[in-house]
Amino acid sequence: MFLGKRNLVLILVTILLAFGLARGEEEAAVYMGDLGVIVITPTRGPRMIKDLPTNVSVITRKEIAESDAHNVGEVLKNRLGVEVRRYGTLGAPSYIGLRGCSAYQTLVMVDGRPVNSISDGIADLSQFSVDNIERIEIVRGPASALYGANALGGVVNIITREAKEEKVTVDGNFGMGSFGTQIARLNFGTKDTNIKTYFTISNNTSDGWRKNSAYDNHNFTGRLAYDAGKIGNFELRGGYHRGKLGLPGVNYKSDPITWERVLLDEKFAADPNHNQEDEKEHGVLEYSNKGENLSLLLKAYGSGDQRRDRNPDEPRDDLHQNVTRGIEAQVDTVYGIRLGMDVHQDKYRQRDEIDSRTKIDEKTLNGAIFLQETFSIKPITAMPGIRFDHHSAYGTQINPSLSLVCQFSQPEESLKLSFNLGRGFRAPTFCDLYQPYTDYVIYQAQGNPDLKPEKAWAYDLGFEHQLGNLLLTRVTLFETNIEDLIEWAMDPSFIWMPSNVAQAYSKGVEVEFIHQIMAGLSQSVNYTYVRSAGKKEGEEKYEIAPYKPHNRVNYRINYTSHFGLNISLGTEYVDEQWSARGKTGDRLPDYFLLNARIAQRIRNLEAYISLDNILDKKYQTVFGYPMPRRTIMAGISWRFGS
Q1: Average pLDDT in the 165-194 region?
Q2: For residue 94, pLDDT beyond 60
Q3: What span, in angstroms and rounded, lies between the C-alpha atoms of 579 and 585?
Q4: Is the C-alpha dihedral spanning 53, 59, 63, 69 positive or negative?
Q5: Are 171 and 123 in contact (CB under 8 A)?
């Protein structure tokens, strides 16, 4: 059964509340959700979100601040169509999937620069602090026509902050909470006639909830921009991250004879001495010039990250090094045509420090060109696009897309219909391709250099209706069909290898309501139903995919008074899920969470307190990695000049 009776009642009450209060008191100039925000991710250029399909969402700086989130994973976890799989408290790995697609199939970017690891293909959202984020843009559905590899399920683009006012601005935040958690952040920005700077520094630490789950990280980002008038704009951005994290492993032991998993105390650590150290740096040099008939954007970028993975109990001491260097160019014409190219080289090195042996030392080159056009014949706007990628390891990929938006407006309401069709692909990782033969005692594993990318066709149909300044409704139906799915399985020689041996699909519906009850009081609810299933080569029946709950519901009500008091209450419901295909393996029960935040602002100073999991529920998003019970966080933030 998808939903228990108790949880079904809670969900229905939440949705009915959103409808029932729709007849509340109307106020003038009420801000309706994110419709007034300008985003760049869906088209690689600025457009208002109200003019884009319903598969686009944005999380504003204000929403991020009110969430008291410490990293991007915590910001995204309650969003429409989003699934964030977390492995514990602050610093523990956190991975995102969109519309039932995996973290391998979801592209994460910072200011348009891909940050998925080239070695394993995923982005750990716990390593991205919220210090300098202006907004987060989400595009659900294939975006490979603009961004290439790994945008099969969609794109999450983190847009960083910049100085906007011609004065010095300083803001900071210090907080303390459960498990010895301490958060300290300081941001500094300046702007004069033609020079802008913005710098952030932060330190986040925690003793962790489970044994061996302590975390300590340091972050620094810098941004320097110069406006040279008619010559153009020059900008230099960079950042550095260093962190150390304990990896407790699972909280169960397996019977050596039956292999049955026996759960132990929630704080038990199967790996009491396992830890990792991460170090990341990146730099971007950008030039832009906007003329009367066309705009030019040139970009050179580079990034490097290093991970040291140690576990003396195995023993293990592996060093992973990822390096990416690339250039981009983009031209936008007054006729709505956007043309661009991207060339980048990736290099991955894996070394065993115990016996001083290099396991992997490979590099690849990818070149791409893309084209998109936007044209309107009222009331319809069409956005066709196509991208050609050629990769030195897996060859050429061609990915087209088409978006249609039809809008009807009246003085008191507006209606929008949209349609998206696109092809996306997920590239095999360096580990998929080049993992050397390795004997893990109970099994052997090896990469497969003949792998092909996963490919998918997807479409969605969207409906959006806004009733004055009162109620915004969005409904989107979607389906994604994936071929050549990469799975690791045992070959005839009893060696685990990855192969393109499976197919999968995800289909469902996304529903969202944003309602302004009265001045200062608003509520929102989103619901996602998704059915994800797959089958291996030779199988006839599709089986439910692991870790894919059918139902997710999130509700939030927020009150802000004229004297600076802010109170928000949020709920989260996630359906049951299983750790293996076809509802086999270990069952993770459904769960319902209740969270709250209270803040009081006095001029430039704000004191806040937040409570998560108020009902003290037991729950997991990955079997064997229990999430913490009730937690509390309190702190103070201040702003000067902003």
Answers
A1: 91
A2: yes
A3: 5
A4: positive
A5: no
